[in-house]
Design a protein that fits this description.
113 residues, alpha+beta, 12% strand
């Protein structure tokens, strides 16, 4: 049985920013590609069809948000997805969804004054 006020684990403080970062279609495509393999900028340009300067700006945003790590390799830079960042965000959403299911099952609502 749930108490009158259930504590919900919020999305991490940087979660809203992370959601904004991942909401961009090109950045989401890059994240999807990096989930499958570590790629350099050249590969990502080929895969996405984006201009190199535009893609580099998006990769900088992903790097600053902590979504990807970089690995220099000669004159190229490889990008690797940091899955723990996505796992953390997914966990926060899973907890939020479970709380919503429990609330719906009990039809709990706050009375109006």
């Amino acid at each position: 049985m749930m108490s009158a006020k259930t504590e919900v684990t919020p999305v991490p403080p940087d979660g809203a920013e992370l959601i904004r970062v991942l909401a961009d279609p090109l950045r989401f495509e890059v994240v999807t590609l990096l989930a499958r393999e570590t790629l350099c900028t050249t590969h990502l340009v080929e895969e996405t069809g984006a201009r190199q300067t535009n893609l580099s700006n998006h990769l900088r945003v992903l790097r600053e948000a902590g979504v990807v790590d970089t690995e220099p390799c000669g004159r190229f830079t490889y990008y690797r997805l940091r899955p723990e960042v996505l796992t953390s965000l997914a966990g926060a959403f899973a907890e939020l969804a479970e709380t919503a299911r429990e609330t719906a099952a009990t039809d709990r609502k706050r009375p109006c004054p």
